[in-house]
């Protein structure tokens, strides 16, 4: 009797655990292969431990039939992928299956894999991500608890990848005050390109993160006490992740964001059924709203920009550029647009100019040169405000 191919059955299979153990220290690859294997075995409706056999026990026609069956499974899966995923995703998923089979000494001919590529890798990118506006992000975060608000403001303010944000420890943050941006240091082993990165977050995100850190330890204790009393906990405890700030996995973070999206009414999907707003779109929010493109790309840890920006700018200059433009990334405390502020100042200047013209006219009409219209407290206040605005420009 064949075993079920539920998610738990697939991920608990010995053949899968043995394969994934090779990638424990490569988080991105680990999660990608984990998801790929889960999808593949649920698609072909077979259990991994039944699927993987010792190929050396077969020979002749039996061996040919066995390899033909493997090829047919992969071909059917490839057809399904072409109808639903982008070329980049298809390449990743096929690589996952090929690597898994090779790990267990099931070698399909190189020509077979090349023929799959020649047969096409699907359509162009299907998922049409939508960059959240400031109002959309604000509405979402109004439904978040203190941890969710801190995490998602951190990503939108700094442009960090989700794995980088979840790997942060308290010693990686240098909090600043008096309106200065806080400094974030990403260690090389966490960074995607394996190089250390320094980035920043504005005071709004810093305050949210401080609020989470104040209650973090109590939150962990209450959570662990609750799940330890459950006979079968699907959430687990925080014991393995208490050295990080947020103490949660990528899957949990995605689940939290999905709930916020649903509660705030932004659960729209594209034609392939994927959500338009995801955690990754918070990085796109940063990229779209940070006005200095080359600095923004470098802070996003894009390799090409890193090569050009950091030889040309000192770290202090990059920090100052971030500080000057960080108000574009604020979500809850957005300042008035620069154009509106200038209009307000111009109106004040026009009012004062009109007042002075009236006084000059009255001076010309006075035979003795005396000013009938006195310089009132209102005039002085208007003059002082205008001078202060000029100094602020």
Commentary on this structure:
- By secondary structure, this protein is mostly helical.
- The chain has 18 helices and 3 strands.
- The chain has helices at 7-11, 14-20, 27-44, 48-51, 60-84, 87-103, 110-118, 134-141, 146-158, 162-166, 203-227, 250-263, 280-289, 293-299, 303-312, 315-325, 338-365, 377-392; strands spanning 173-174, 182-186, 197-201.
- Strands 1-2-3 form a 3-stranded antiparallel beta sheet.
- The termini are far apart.
- How many domains comprise the coordinates? 3
- On the 0 to 100 scale, the average pLDDT is 83
What general outline do the C-alpha atoms trace?
elongated
CATH architecture of the largest domain, by name, is Orthogonal Bundle
Q: Would you give the CATH topology of the largest domain?
A: hpI Integrase, Chain A
Strand percentage: under 5%
Oligomer state equals single chain
Given helix and strand content, the structural type is: mainly alpha
Give the end-to-end Cα distance, rounded to a whole number of Å: 78 Å
Q: Spatial order of the strands in the main sheet? A: 1-2-3
Order of helices and strands: HHHHHHHHHHEEEHHHHHHHH
CATH C-level label of the largest domain: Mainly Alpha
Largest sheet: 3 strands, antiparallel
Going by CATH, the homologous superfamily of the largest domain would be Intergrase catalytic core
Task: Name the helicity range.
Answer: 55-70%
Counting DSSP E segments of at least 2 residues, the number of strands comes to: 3
Total helix count? Answer: 18
The radius of gyration computed from the alpha-carbon positions, rounded to a whole number of angstroms, is: 30 Å
Provide the low-confidence segments as ranges. Answer: 231-237, 367-371
């Amino acid at each position: 009797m064949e075993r079920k191919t539920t998610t738990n059955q697939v991920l608990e299979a010995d053949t899968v655990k043995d394969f994934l153990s090779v990638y424990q220290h490569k988080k991105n690859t680990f999660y990608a292969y984990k998801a790929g294997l889960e999808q593949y075995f649920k698609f072909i409706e077979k259990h991994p431990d039944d699927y993987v056999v010792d190929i050396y026990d077969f020979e002749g026609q039996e061996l040919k039939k066995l390899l033909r069956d493997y090829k047919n499974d992969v071909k059917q899966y490839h057809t399904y992928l072409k109808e639903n995923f982008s070329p980049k995703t298809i390449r990743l998923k096929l690589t996952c299956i090929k690597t898994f089979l090779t790990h267990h000494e099931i070698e399909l001919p190189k020509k077979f894999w090349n023929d799959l590529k020649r047969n096409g890798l699907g359509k162009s990118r299907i998922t049409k991500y939508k960059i959240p506006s400031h109002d959309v992000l604000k509405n979402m975060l109004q439904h978040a608890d203190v941890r969710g608000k801190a995490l998602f403001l951190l990503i939108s303010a700094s442009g960090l990848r989700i794995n980088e944000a979840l790997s942060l420890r308290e010693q990686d943050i240098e909090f600043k005050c008096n309106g200065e941006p806080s400094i974030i240091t990403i260690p090389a082993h966490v960074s995607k390109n394996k190089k250390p990165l320094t980035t920043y977050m504005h005071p709004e995100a810093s305050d949210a993160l401080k609020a989470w850190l104040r209650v973090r330890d109590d939150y962990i204790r209450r959570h662990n006490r609750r799940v330890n009393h459950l006979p079968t906990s699907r959430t687990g405890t925080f014991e393995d992740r208490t050295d990080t700030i947020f103490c949660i996995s990528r899957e949990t973070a995605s689940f939290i964001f999905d709930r916020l999206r649903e509660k705030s009414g932004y659960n729209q999907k594209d034609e392939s059924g994927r959500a338009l707003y995801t955690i990754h779109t918070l990085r796109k929010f940063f990229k779209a709203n940070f006005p200095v493109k080359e600095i923004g790309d470098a802070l996003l840890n894009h390799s090409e920009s890193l090569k050009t920006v950091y030889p040309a700018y000192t770290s202090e200059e990059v920090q100052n550029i971030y500080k000057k433009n960080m108000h574009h990334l604020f979500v809850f405390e957005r300042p008035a647009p620069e154009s509106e502020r200038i209009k307000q100042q111009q109106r004040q200047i026009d009012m004062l100019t009109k007042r002075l013209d009236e006084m000059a006219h009255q001076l010309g009409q006075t035979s003795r040169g005396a000013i009938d219209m006195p310089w009132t407290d209102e005039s002085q206040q208007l003059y002082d405000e205008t001078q202060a605005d000029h100094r602020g420009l």
